[in-house]
Automatic annotation (TrEMBL):
<protein>
    <recommendedName>
        <fullName>BRCT domain-containing protein</fullName>
    </recommendedName>
</protein>
<feature type="region of interest" description="Disordered">
    <location>
        <begin position="32"/>
        <end position="78"/>
    </location>
</feature>
<keyword id="KW-0597">Phosphoprotein</keyword>
<dbReference type="InterPro" id="IPR051579">
    <property type="entry name" value="DDR_Transcriptional_Reg"/>
</dbReference>
<feature type="compositionally biased region" description="Polar residues">
    <location>
        <begin position="64"/>
        <end position="78"/>
    </location>
</feature>
<dbReference type="GO" id="GO:0006281">
    <property type="term" value="P:DNA repair"/>
</dbReference>
<dbReference type="InterPro" id="IPR036420">
    <property type="entry name" value="BRCT_dom_sf"/>
</dbReference>
<keyword id="KW-0539">Nucleus</keyword>
<dbReference type="Pfam" id="PF16589">
    <property type="entry name" value="BRCT_2"/>
</dbReference>
<keyword id="KW-0227">DNA damage</keyword>
<dbReference type="InterPro" id="IPR001357">
    <property type="entry name" value="BRCT_dom"/>
</dbReference>
<feature type="domain" description="BRCT">
    <location>
        <begin position="106"/>
        <end position="184"/>
    </location>
</feature>
<keyword id="KW-0234">DNA repair</keyword>
<dbReference type="Pfam" id="PF16770">
    <property type="entry name" value="RTT107_BRCT_5"/>
</dbReference>
<dbReference type="GO" id="GO:0005634">
    <property type="term" value="C:nucleus"/>
</dbReference>
Length: 335
């Protein structure tokens, strides 16, 4: 018991010493904090207190003032409702147009049978292009159905063939209008005095609108896998006919072939044919021109040398029989 009492007496003064040291350290921290507060008040700066020192009330007031706005403050009645609605409508409108309407390709325009300098200016003002290349033309402007090279190239490629009102109305709207309402019809030909131009569809048994639809729906062009040669006596001349053939996907053979070789000859009717022309398929120019308008190729109707082909085949067969007879006779003599 005496030993325990001695231990308590020894440890108790140590506790008093630790408590006195902790109180001294707290006092020192309070003094330092008070000095920092005084310095900050003199310099006009904010103080950030550490430890258990109390926070000033000014800090709470400033924090309430600088707090971020809530959702109610964003939709406050300071801004009128009609302005908010119009702003939303303006932002959403371009997105709707881009999603519903595809981006238009700038048209490449060509004229046939019509000289219109004002129309050319309208095309350039609206952002289009004038072209002289039949392989690039997307829009052909004319006043009636014609059988020109440009017209035939446009039909076989399925390009737009429009009347002159398309450019006039597009100028009023300051943009290229849809082509469906301005496609060339037979009604526009009635304005001319010539009677032959109004009956071209009846004369060649075709409908322009239907022919263009067929040409646009084709997976392969009309003259695909055809090799064609045009004779010099054909009108339109060979250079122009070759442009039409190339637009239709055909292959041009500029030299007269020596044999059939799968080449179709475009020529004219003749009483006599040369030896080179015997056995070749010679078609009239309507095989190409009427074939484009009707969007079908008639090999029997436009074949010119049916008799020459039959005579040449019979001649070749007879020559073959004579040769076989001679070969047999030689074999018998050798025996």
């Amino acid at each position: 018991m005496k030993r325990n009492a001695v231990k308590q007496e020894v440890t108790s003064p140590n506790k008093n010493i630790v408590q006195s040291e902790s109180t001294i350290s707290v006092k020192i921290e309070n003094v330092e904090n008070n000095e920092n507060i005084r310095k900050s008040q003199r310099n006009g700066k904010k103080t950030f207190l550490s430890g258990n020192s109390p926070k000033p009330e000014t800090r709470k007031r400033r924090s309430t003032q600088t707090a971020p706005p809530s959702d109610q403050s964003i939709s406050s009645p300071v801004v009128p409702n009609h302005l908010i609605f119009s702003a939303k409508r303006i932002k959403s409108k371009p997105n709707v147009q881009l999603s519903l309407r595809p981006r238009r390709i700038k048209p490449k325009v060509m004229f046939t049978g019509v000289v219109d300098e004002l129309g050319e200016k309208i095309v350039s003002d609206l952002g289009g292009h004038m072209t002289d290349d039949v392989l690039e033309c997307t829009h052909l402007i004319t006043d009636k159905i014609r059988r020109t090279v440009k017209f035939m190239c446009a039909v076989v490629r399925g390009a737009y063939i429009l009347n002159c009102d398309w450019l006039k109305d597009s100028k009023k709207q300051w943009r290229f209008l849809p082509e469906e309402d301005y496609e060339l019809r037979e009604d526009h030909n009635n304005s001319t005095s010539s009677s032959t131009s109004t009956s071209l569809e009846d004369q060649f048994n075709f409908n322009l609108h239907e022919s263009l639809e067929i040409a646009r729906s084709r997976s392969l062009p009309l003259f695909h896998d055809l090799r064609l040669h045009v004779m010099k006596s054909v009108l339109p001349p060979p250079n122009e006919m070759y442009q039409i053939i190339l637009c239709g996907g055909g292959e041009v053979v500029k030299r007269m072939p020596g044999s059939d070789a799968g080449v179709i000859i475009i020529g004219v009717e003749a009483k006599k044919r040369t030896k080179k022309q015997l056995g070749l398929r010679i078609m009239s120019k309507e095989f190409i021109l009427t074939g484009i308008l009707q969007q079908k190729l008639d090999y029997k109707k436009f074949l010119l040398n049916q008799d020459d082909i039959t005579t040449s085949t019979s001649y070749n067969n007879s020559c073959g029989t004579r040769a076989t007879r001679g070969a047999r006779a030689r074999k018998t003599l050798m025996k």
